[in-house]
Amino acid sequence: FIVNYIKDLPFDPKNEFEKRGIFYSLQTSIESTMDLIAMLIKDLGIQVKDDSTNISEIVKLRKLNLELGDKLKKANGLRNIIVHRYNEIDEHLILKSVKEVKDLLFHWIDILEEILSELS
User: Fold this and answer.
1) Secondary structure letter of residue 49 according to DSSP
2) pLDDT for 22-67, tens place per residue?
3) DSSP notation for the chain
4) Which residues belong to the active site?
5) Distance between CA atoms of 17 and 117, rounded to whole angstroms?
6) Which CATH number fits domain 2-119: 1.20.1260, 3.40.50, 2.60.40, 1.20.120?
7) What is the pLDDT of residues 72-97, one digit of tens each?
8) How far is C-alpha 49 from the geometric centre of its chain's CA atoms?
């Protein structure tokens, strides 16, 4: 789901409709990643908490680079901004971050798949 939603996201929308599609795809992909992390936390026998804590747990368990966790927490903050339209969002700033968020989510998907493979 996540890969299909973001793999072909354009970096420069041609119109308002395409821009909304980019925002929606980012929002749902980040949200899905948070859900996957929460499900994995539960499968590992750890109590599921808020997204930030769940990310920190995975980072700690896997001895991942702390910056990787911080970037995902920031991406989750971006998701909240998109969803709730906080502070008259700077759409240009969001569009500039599309590639970085895509790369980050692909990296996290690889990590989650690796953990799931080890569990099965």
Assistant:
1) -
2) 999 999 999 999 999 999 999 999 999 999 999 999 999 999 999 9
3) -HHHHHTT--SS-SSHHHHHHHHHHHHHHHHHHHHHHHHHHHHTTPPP--HHHHHHHHHHHHT--HHHHHHHHHHHHHHHHHHHTTTS--HHHHHHTHHHHHHHHHHHHHHHHHHHHHH-
4) 79, 84
5) 38
6) 1.20.120
7) 999 999 998 888 875 567 888 889 99
8) 17
Q: Are 74 and 57 in contact (CB under 8 A)?
A: no
What kind and span of H or E run contains 3? Answer: helix 2-6
- Take residue 83 and report the two structure tokens written for it: 């969803």
- At 16, list the tokens: 């308002």
State pTM to two decimals: 0.89
